[in-house]
Design goal:
Layout lengths: L6 E5 L4 H12 L3 E5 L9 H11 L3 E4 L7 H6 L1 H22 L3 E5 L28 H21 L3 E6 L1 E3 L12 H15 L3 E5 L5 E6 H14 L6 E3 L4 E3 H12 L4 E5 L14 H7 L7 H15 L2
Parallel strand pairs: 1-2, 1-3, 3-4, 4-5, 5-9, 6-8, 7-11
Antiparallel strand pairs: 8-10
Helix pairs in contact: 1-7, 2-4, 4-5, 6-8, 6-10, 8-10
Length: about 300
């Protein structure tokens, strides 16, 4: 699909991932129509219809989400379920009613069952219940996959569903209350280094593993899904690098210059034991593979934080 001259609505277009998607669309010759929560409440179908009427888009990418780390998921399970589910449900329905040609829905790796064998294959999505701390968020997103498939079957509405692994990069959220693991670790290490502290306390045991995807690579994969992905089945977007939280902390300490020790607090939850996806379908169907490795991506993220933290 040639996007030149097309209008693409991007929900969450002012956010961490959405800004990258908008920029990637511009590079393809498209005009991104950025929808921000400050302008339109996407949980309100009336306001959502107004957004679509104002934008008059040819296509849409749903990147808006209420997200956070383990702490935020434990604190707001009701909000995370309701807002993520309702935003997506209304958007799919109204996009179909408005005659949008194609909608790409950005899912989450949190939808996978807690004890999925690594690497996660797309066919594993329904083999069990997600890890408890982020199950409300993961299940809300997974219901959008079901709705997209149902609307394709009944109405012929074209949608695609992509599942990126944990995202990180410059511009991430570094607030302790709501951030994910990488920005939280970066901030802790830099503040400890600057204060001359000899110890940093980290949540959990450090044993779980994760797969982290640089945000620009994720945006590239999502736009390629808009251009090339046909059919109702989900597609993983991953970095093909699984790393333990303990090793991640050591890597961040080296990059930030923190020379102290880590004290792991096992009273805090670890989350899912292992997390890494099989990305072969994205390579086959989209011709996509990540370009930025974990060490380079962390270096860029640390540099951004040091420049912007004040």
């Amino acid at each position: 699909m040639d996007l030149t001259g097309s209008r693409v609505l991007v929900t969450g277009g002012g956010g961490f991932l959405g800004r990258r998607i908008a920029r990637t669309l511009e590079e393809r010759g498209a005009t991104p129509i950025v929808v921000r929560s400050a302008d339109y409440d996407l949980t309100d179908p009336v306001r959502l219809r107004s957004a679509l009427a104002d934008a008059v888009p040819d296509y849409a990418i749903h990147a808006a989400a209420v997200v956070g780390g383990i702490g935020a998921n434990r604190m707001h399970p009701g909000r995370f379920f309701y807002e993520n589910a309702v935003m997506g449900v209304h958007l799919i329905h109204e996009a179909w009613r408005a005659g949008i040609r194609k909608l790409v829905i950005v899912g989450t790796v949190c939808s996978y069952p807690k004890f999925t064998a690594v690497p996660f294959h797309e066919e594993d999505l329904w083999d069990g219940y997600p890890e408890e701390t982020n199950a409300p968020y993961g299940l809300a997103k997974k219901m959008l996959l079901v709705q997209g498939q149902a609307y394709r079957d009944e109405y012929g509405f074209d949608s695609a569903f992509v599942i990126p692994t944990n995202l990180y990069g410059p511009g991430d959220n570094f607030d302790y209350e709501t951030s994910h693991v990488i920005p939280a670790m970066i901030r802790k290490c830099i503040e400890a280094r600057d204060a001359g502290a000899h110890e940093v306390v980290m949540w959990g045991t450090g044993d779980p593993t994760r797969e982290f995807l640089y945000v620009d690579d994720a945006a590239e994969g999502i736009v390629l899904a808009l251009q090339h992905l046909e059919g109702p089945e989900p597609v993983n977007l991953g970095s093909a690098t699984e790393i333990s939280i303990r090793d991640l902390a050591g890597l961040i300490a080296r990059i930030t210059g923190f020379e102290g020790r880590f004290a792991w607090d096992p009273s805090k939850p670890d989350g899912q034991p292992r997390r890494a996806v099989d990305g072969s379908k994205a390579q086959r169907l989209l011709g996509w593979s990540p370009r930025v490795g974990i060490e380079e991506g962390l270096q860029r993220t640390v540099e951004w934080y040091l420049e912007h933290r004040r």
